[in-house]
Amino acid sequence: MEVRYASHYEDVKHYDTTKLRKHFLIENLFTPGKLYMVYSHVDRIIVAGAVPTDKPLYLEASKELGSNYFLERREMGIINIGGTGIVNLDGERYELNNSDGLYVGMGIKEVSFESLDANNPAKFYINSATAHKSYPTVKIGLSEANKVKAGTDEECNKRTINQYVHPAVCQSCQLVMGMTILEPGSIWNTMPCHTHDRRMEVYLYFNMDEDNVVFHFMGTPNETRHIVVKNEQAVISPSWSIHSGVGTKNYTFIWGMVGENQTFTDMDEIPTKDLR
Hints:
Number of strands: 24
CATH superfamily: Jelly Rolls
CATH topology: Jelly Rolls
Structural class: mainly beta
Largest sheet: 7 strands, mixed
Low-confidence stretches: none
Oligomer: single chain
CATH architecture: Sandwich
Number of helices: 2
């Protein structure tokens, strides 16, 4: 498990490109046959990618958690962005097709991941947060996610926000998670942008080919920076930072938030004219 420590915004404004990418960009989430995890000290979120091939991958505790098993004091959300796969939870099997999600509550002891076809493996994207109570496991398909339409063709940001782990869909302690799909011809997300000092966020960008990228904007509103993000890479966004992106083509991204509340609309809006 890779550990990332929190950074103060007064320090971040002095970071060069290499240092920004080192602290905030997660580049190698999805490696065939591997389970890769990043533990961020920003609200103690764990971001992970599991790509099982010819054998199952097991989610286990480590020294960083100080627990007997991974979900002893944690909850997690999973969205599959690859081929069909199986999540095993204490012996119960959940089959996830592409774009299917799963909320897993605190207390599940044995967690493993499998692919039905090693040549077209599942790609399980995972966000995990600390938890204080056990809520039921819930499978959430794309059609079952709570949908919010946003944006316009004129602003190049027409998109559907699919809320998976969200109070409108299922109970969780603090994790909120979903997937936003941009329409063809739309390239902007979350602009005008915002911060929410009560919650941090992680964006996973995907459904891009190798010729396209997203320019992810971060930083305080008066000290913005950008990170060039390729397909299936994620960016950690501290609560003090804006988080917005523009692509060279339309794309999809998964967002996950943890922190003080679960109020999706709790945002501190930043007028575009005030950005620097």
